[in-house]
Structure formats: structure tokens, C-alpha cells
Amino acid sequence: MEQTVANAAPEGVAVDSAGASGDPLESSFAAMLKTDEHGERIDALEGAVDGVKADVDALKGETATLKTGMARIASAAARPVLASPAAPSGAEVKGGATSPALRAFVDGYLRAGRETEIKSFNAGSGPEGGFAVPDELDAVIAKTLNTISPIRRIANVVQTGSAGYRKLITHGGTPSGWVSETAARDETDTPTFAEIAPPSGELYANPAASQTMLDDAAFNVEQWLASEIAEEFARAEGAAFIKGSGANQPRGFLRAPVSDAGDATRAFGTLQTVFSGADAGFAASDPEDRLIDLVHSLKPAYRQGASFVMNSTTLALIRKFKTEDGAFLWQPGLAEGRPDTLLGYPVVEAEDMPDIASGSLSIAFGNFRAGYLIAERKATTILRDPFTNKPFVHFYATKRVGGQVLNSEAIKLMRFGAIN
């Protein structure tokens, strides 16, 4: 009993089982187990640290990307607003900043080629056919076109939702008259209708810029693109509205049938010609008389809003004409925004009008708002192409445009030839 008490450990002191056995192998094995356990814990901690480092690096990359995007957005917001007071309804311009749709289109698609950013705003077409431009950008293209495309500026322009636009018009007049309240009404003739279906084609432009230009936040890509597209469109459609064949393009008014017969006897759709008085030129004496005849061949109702159309070479000749008292027939527009006039009517210079030659139709006079119809799809579509011509990025822009003479009584032509 006394021996047992002597060998007992003091109260509160733990006795190691290995130590109690006194076996050194068991002690070494226990120490090894503890070492392995500590190593596993260290490896786990190191793995966790590596994972945290990877997450931190990823967050740093995302932060840098966000900072770059925010810098581009801030630069775009600082640019002048594209939309004008005449911008179409639905243009989202608030507080002097461009709309989200325009920012996504310019910074996401035009600059970087990211299509996902504009799909939520854009329901027009798809990647293969390009995307319809936002209203603000389309308004800038249209405004520039109206400024530099001569016939568009004076013609009747309608927006269509489909390619096959058609318009019914009456010709020959609608019978009318005066009667008392209770008097019998005479039966009137049925008016004659004609269907106008202007031939159309796909108008395209393909401006290019380097990726370095697009990456430059100071480069105003939307203004540059609108200007490039409008200039190319104006050049192509300016020729088509005057002399287009009507095959996959508008039919120009010079391609309409012509006759020297008056309005009462001429077939509908045929334009009247007035002779200049001499072959390949004007009559030697009183050449201005033939211009006056041209003006008065147009009905008075159409003379309100009528214009002369000719190229600059023909205009240079006519500017030298004087009246008997020495006054020039041509008068400059002295006030800002006022056009130059000939016999009191505005003069539109269209370089696609033919030069004076034998039998040429070098001068047109008429109310083109009533006489010539331009039918176009509303939206311009742009397809970004960074592959065809590296290192340049092309922007293939398309728009469907048609045109045709609408009222053949509203446009008259001067034929350069002797009087029959």
C-alpha cells in the first residue's frame, strides 16, 4: 500500500503514456505523428495563402479594367452631345450627357468590338448584318446628308419600315365645284390613280480607322464616323437621284421620259422640256428669254418653293447674263442663310447634272418637294470588320434608299437645242 502511493504522480500532473511505459520507440513514434500533423497544417495554410494571393491578383486586374472603362466613359461624357434640338423622339440625352445606348455603341462596339454591351439596347439586325446605329448618331448622319446632298435637300424624303414602299397619287385633278345647300350635285368623274413604287438599292460606305486611333480616348470616333458615312452616302446618292438607272438604285429624274408637250396633253410620268434656242448653247440674242419660258412652263402652284438645279459650269455661264439695263439675272444671297437666286428662285448646284452639249438636259427647274420622292429605311446599319484589312478596322455602313419622279408636272427640263 505504501509502495503504490510512493509511485503515484502528484495531483494535477499528467502522466505521458509513453513515458510511463519507459519505451523509447513509442516516444519517438508519438513525436513523429505530431511532426506530420504540424506539417500538414503548414501545407494547408500555405495553400490557403496562395489562393488568397491569386484572388488578390484577379481583383487587381479587374480593378484596372474598370478604371480603364471608367476613364473612357468619362472622356465620352465630356464630348459635345451629338443630338440636336431636331433629334428624333426617343433619343436619350439627359443633363448634357450622351445616352447609355450611344455610349455602349461607341465605346463598347465601335472602339472595342464588344457586341454584348449593345445587344440590350439594339434590336436591329445582328452580328452578321451589323447593328442599327443609335438615334443620336443617325440624326447626325441625316443632318450632314441634308447639308451636302443637293437633291435630298429639296426633295420629298419619307422614312419607311420596309424596302417595298408604294404611294398612290391622283393625276388629272379631282372634279369639284360650287353648289347651294339644297341644290342637286352633279355626278363627278372617278379620279385616276397612279402607283409610285420608287426603285431602291443598298447604299453603302466603308470607312476605316486604325486600332490605335480607336484606342485613343481623345479621338471622337462617333463624329468622325458620322462625317465619313454622310460624305460617301451623299456622293453616291447625289448621282443616283439625278441620273440613276433604277436597277438596284434610285431612278434619277433625268431618266424619266421627256416630251415638249404641255401638261394638258403629256402622258403622266413624262417630264416637259423647253428648248434653249440654239444647239449646244443659248440663243445669241436675249438668252434670258428661254429661262423665263422655262420658269413659266411650271404651274403657278408649283412655283412656290421651286428651284433651279444645274452644275457649276452651267451656272458660271448663266451668271454672266444681264438684263437690258445691265442688271445680272443671278443675284447672290446677301443675308446669312439666304440662297443665291436666278430670276428670283434659289439655285442648287449639283455637279452630277450634265454639262451643256447638243441635246443635253443641263438645267432643271421645279418644285422638287412635290416632284421627286426619296424613300429610305430609317436606320443606318454598321458592321465592324477588324479582319479584312489589318491593322485597320473597317466600318461597313449600309442604308436602303430609293427614289423616283413623283409628280411629272412639278419638274421641267431645259433641252439645249434649236426650237422645233
From TrEMBL:
Signal peptide annotation: none
Principal localisation: virion
Top-level taxon: Bacteria
Subcellular location per the Swiss-Prot or TrEMBL entry: Virion
Domain spans labelled Phage capsid-like C-terminal: 129-416
Name this polypeptide is given: Phage major capsid protein
The species this protein was found in: Alterisphingorhabdus coralli
Region Disordered, residue ranges: 1-21
